[in-house]
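Tutorial handout. Part one gives the primary structure; part two gives the three-dimensional structure as tokens.
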Amino acid sequence: MKFVLASYGTRGDVEPCAAVGRELLRRGHDVRMAVPPNMLGFVESAGLAAVASQELEDFIRNFWKIQHPINALREVIEHVTQLWVEMSTTLMALANGADLLLTGTFEQDFAANVAEYYDIPLAALHCFPVRFFAPRWLHRQRMKEAEDAQRRALGLPEATGPSTRRMVDRASLEIQAYDEFCFPGLAAEWAECDGRRPFVGALTMKLPTDADDEVASWIAAGPPPIYFGFGSTPVGSLADMVAMISAACTELGERALIYSSANGCNHIPHPDHVKLVDLVNFATIFPACRAVVHHGGAGTTAAGMRAGVPTLILWVKADQPIWAAAVERLKVGSARRFSSTTRESLVADLRSILAPQYVTRAREVATRMTKPAVSVTAAADLLEDTARLGRFG
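Part two.
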């Protein structure tokens, strides 16, 4: 069978889809992916065939920096509409002859229209409960106009509602790529969905990196460090962040492993108990750390919880507050907004999560997390069944 996977965002958005794609490929299926240009090499290194498509993320992020965004609404909508049409064109070519189209949370709208055009099943991969995420009015408005233009270009009638509602009406598969216990009561709330929103656990490929051996050696040379990393989330000056983390860890007598987002950053002043690193394999590095501090991305949060170490989330945007709340609810750590973080607050937060009750609770929760191999197998099984039946159920 032919599966087409579309994911437009950062690595945290793309990797779950790629993990499922690699499993489907291993089973002998034809798998193609559409990803942002900067994710093409990453996906291809995992052995998957991929094409580069337009990326909305940078434009949307820069849009909110405009001093008077409402005044620029028409220009924004026109730009987004053009990007959407180009993304749709790429996906249309890729999905021709496909048995199923899988998409991420933020690509559902235009992917749903492509699936409708070809009359093939659409499945979604959600890394957090979508109902907890309320996009701003302006975001909905520009997406609505872009979707209307796409549907006209495809010769489809005007949409009768958002893609989330149309997916429910079509009984589409919505895979929940996180563990059910992270959001108590959600499964009961969705009982009427007849299994259309199954929980499979977080999806990851656990890919090794070039830095893993060196980092493991540094960790082994002293007490377990605290990991600090914020993925692709912009958090201001790296030098200022390193200085704040270094000072906090000095006061606490802790070592720090800081993700610097790029090689060659060792020119930034830092003491001996601090190491700056590029990408590392969370699956092997996190269990060797005392705690993890990060932005609250779904994948990083799951990796920290699977490692059985306390978590401090310093969130910035999007779904990150959702995972910050989940970590606090599960009592495996604490959270605050990154913009309100100071050296003093960081010291206090780290001292808090390193307390025995958080360490013990983190280890307990780790035993409840679905293993990555089980998660990806369950997701691939669901997609195969849906494609085989031509629908879900």
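Part three, for discussion. Confidence is low (pLDDT under 50) at residues 63-67. Residues 73-95 form the longest helix (23 residues).
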